[in-house]
Q: What sequence folds into this?
């Protein structure tokens, strides 16, 4: 007490009560110093009728145990934040990501490494300067028999969504992401060297899935911003996918989209087949070289397709503009009009064009088949130019237009 009294004298403060008197009761917010800092002292009691605040979520350290050629690693992580999983040098990798009830609303990560006796493995968990938590699982290089199974459970009842989950996985990967509801994770980013990726019933603000060589299957996916799918080789199958922007980049992989809805739909291929069925978009673009393009039941305000030698087939409903440009490929399809003013243009060379147009078409037409024969067979057509290879005129009175040209092959326009 002597030291305490001396300290009060030095500070020239009346902080010590007179001898025999109890100190004043603790009353937070009664001074100008503001509320107490959480964790530094007792918190304010809850108001009448209010439950006490939940304790803060605290991550645990990674627990690692090895026995008889088998290593088990586990960790609990507190959202929000960014988590990355990196796996390397395993011959077989199986990863599952799902949402469910977890202990205290924490992200649960568990991995089992089967590597045999005498094989070095590593399981680490670190936080970088940007605050991202990275979990790394690795085996001695060249150990093709080493296997890893990893499960990530995202909490459904967390106070805040996980900011980001990134998965970096090697060849020989099988990844299953399922049952991720709204408000669980904001950004999901997957990159796989080779293997299979399966997504089902997944919600996120943004999504990117990339596979160098393998298969991507996604069904019942809802993304608030952009959903991107990349495959250099293999195949990509999307069904019932909705997002503000859907991008597919499949230079050497076959692509099948079914029941996809987006404001912007962008597809880029190179030499494999592309098929879009029952797709809806404000603006839809397709760019490819070889292979084939099937657009069946595609509805868009603007549909823009460009190919080199890939033929284009399908049925389209357009509200503003249709543009199909093929360097040297057949174009065959049905055009329905979703508005009174639609501008349609189709060009190719060396291959025929066969287009069935809605009977509601009203406007200008120009059909050219240099070195071949042009046919325009819509009712009430009035021809201003009527040569075997060039037909031009109007159908009724309206703001729409159709321009079709193919050098060296016939062009046939009929009524739908």
A:
């Amino acid at each position: 007490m002597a030291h305490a009294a001396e300290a009060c004298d030095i500070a020239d403060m009346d902080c010590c009560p007179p001898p025999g008197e109890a100190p004043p009761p603790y009353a937070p917010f009664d001074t100008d110093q503001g509320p107490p800092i959480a964790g530094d002292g007792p918190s304010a009691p809850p108001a009448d009728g209010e439950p006490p605040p939940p304790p803060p979520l605290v991550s645990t350290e990674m627990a690692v145990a090895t026995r008889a050629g088998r290593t088990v690693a586990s960790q609990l992580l507190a959202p929000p934040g960014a988590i990355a999983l990196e796996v390397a040098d395993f011959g077989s990798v199986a990863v599952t990501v799902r949402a469910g009830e977890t202990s205290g609303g924490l992200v649960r990560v568990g991995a089992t490494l089967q590597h045999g006796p005498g094989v070095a493995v590593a399981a680490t968990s670190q936080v970088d300067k940007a605050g991202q938590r990275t979990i790394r699982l690795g085996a001695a290089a060249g150990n093709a028999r080493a296997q890893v199974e990893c499960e990530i459970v995202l909490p459904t009842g967390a106070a805040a969504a996980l900011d980001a989950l990134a998965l970096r996985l090697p060849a020989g990967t099988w990844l299953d992401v399922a049952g991720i509801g709204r408000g669980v994770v904001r950004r999901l980013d997957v990159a796989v060297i080779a293997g299979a990726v399966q997504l089902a019933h997944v919600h996120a603000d943004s999504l990117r899935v990339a596979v160098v060589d393998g298969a991507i299957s996604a069904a019942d996916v809802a993304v608030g911003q952009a959903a991107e799918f990349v495959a250099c080789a293999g195949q990509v199958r999307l069904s019932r996918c909705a997002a503000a922007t859907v991008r597919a980049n499949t230079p050497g992989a076959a692509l099948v989209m079914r029941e996809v809805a987006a404001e912007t739909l962008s597809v880029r291929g190179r030499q494999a087949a592309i098929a879009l069925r029952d797709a809806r978009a404000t603006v839809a673009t397709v760019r490819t070289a070889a292979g084939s393009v099937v657009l069946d039941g595609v509805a868009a305000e603007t549909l823009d397709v460009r190919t080199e030698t890939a033929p284009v087939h399908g049925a389209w409903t357009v509200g503003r503009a249709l543009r199909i440009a093929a360097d040297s490929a057949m174009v065959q399809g049905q055009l329905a009009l979703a508005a009174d003013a639609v501008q349609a243009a189709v060009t190719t060379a060396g291959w025929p064009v066969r287009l069935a147009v809605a009977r509601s078409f009203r406007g200008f037409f120009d059909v050219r088949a240099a070195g071949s024969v042009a046919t325009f067979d819509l009712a009430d057509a009035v021809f201003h130019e009527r040569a075997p290879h060039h037909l031009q005129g109007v159908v009724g009175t309206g703001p729409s237009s159709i321009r079709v040209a193919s050098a060296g092959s016939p062009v046939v326009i009929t009524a739908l």
In short: Confidence is low (pLDDT under 50) at residues 1-43. Residues 61 and 75 are 6 Å apart (CA to CA).
